[in-house]
Specification:
Helix 9 runs antiparallel to helix 10. The chain is built from ten helices and four strands. 33% of the residues are buried. Helices cover 44% and strands 12% of the residues. A four-stranded antiparallel sheet has the order 2-3-1-4, sandwiched between helices. The protein has one domain: 2-Layer Sandwich (Alpha-Beta Plaits), CATH 3.30.70. The protein is α+β, with helices and mostly antiparallel strands. The protein is globular. Bound molecules: uridine-5'-diphosphate (UDP) and magnesium ion (MG). Uridine-5'-diphosphate binds next to loops. It comes from Malus domestica (Apple).
Length: 193
């Protein structure tokens, strides 16, 4: 629990990356993980997961009403996905660059979608589009919100309660408590002899 909370409070940049079912089925998991590793970001969560319908709908709730929404949900639940949390300075925007444009035909060569995909509806990978959504998708905001409540009950201010209610809707989307790891690289100066 504590590292989870500390990561929230420190406002560490983190993003939610997911290999979609087509990426898993085409054997692209290693390739996709490798691109984020080589760039220099830090993996803090990783699991193979069969996404249930309601989670897919919650994840993509901003797209509800779009004509492609039902097909998108069908696609996301059609087989296991690989869920990942990645950490690092500027990781949200950098990951979007590594992933490339939503339509793989418009994605630059050198990007994941530009190199590995053809169709928008089968674009192999997801990446959070903002730091706020990164936290929401990984599942950090519930903890941030609980902290806000403790702080503000002592001051008896009602406004933060509104935030609590709002953030609780966002509670743990793809990762649960205990599924994320905090670790220090072996080459970190503090661990040298
Ligand atoms: N999508 C689709 N048809 C569209 C637009 C989007 O099937 O016309 C799918 C596609 O898989 C995309 C996902 O919906 O990755 C989410 O759309 P968004 O606009 O958020 O794109 P992304 O953030 O993934 O680049
Ligand atoms: Mg998006």
């Amino acid at each position: 629990f504590l590292p989870h909370l500390v990561a929230s409070l420190e406002q560490v940049d983190e993003t939610y990356i997911m290999v979609k079912p087509d990426g898993v089925q085409r054997g692209l998991v290693g390739e996709i993980i490798s691109r984020f590793e080589k760039k220099g970001f830090k993996l803090t969560g990783l699991k193979l997961f069969q996404c249930p319908q309601d989670l897919a709908e919650e994840h993509y709730k901003d797209l509800k009403g779009k004509s492609f929404f039902p097909k998108l949900i069908e696609y996301i639940v059609s087989g296991p996905v690989v869920c990942m949390a990645w950490e690092g300075v500027g990781v949200v925007a950098a990951a979007r660059k590594l992933i490339g444009a939503t339509n793989p035909l418009q994605a630059e060569p050198g990007t994941i979608r530009g190199d590995l995909a053809v169709q928008t509806g089968r674009n192999v990978v997801h990446g959070s589009d903002s730091p706020e959504n990164g936290k929401r998708e990984i599942g950090r905001l519930a903890l941030l919100a609980s902290f806000t409540l403790v702080m503000d009950i002592s001051r008896l201010e009602p406004l933060p309660l509104f935030f609590l209610v709002r953030y609780l809707n966002y509670a743990a989307l793809w990762f649960k408590e205990g599924e994320l790891c905090q670790w220090t690289p072996a080459q970190a100066p503090s661990l040298r002899e």
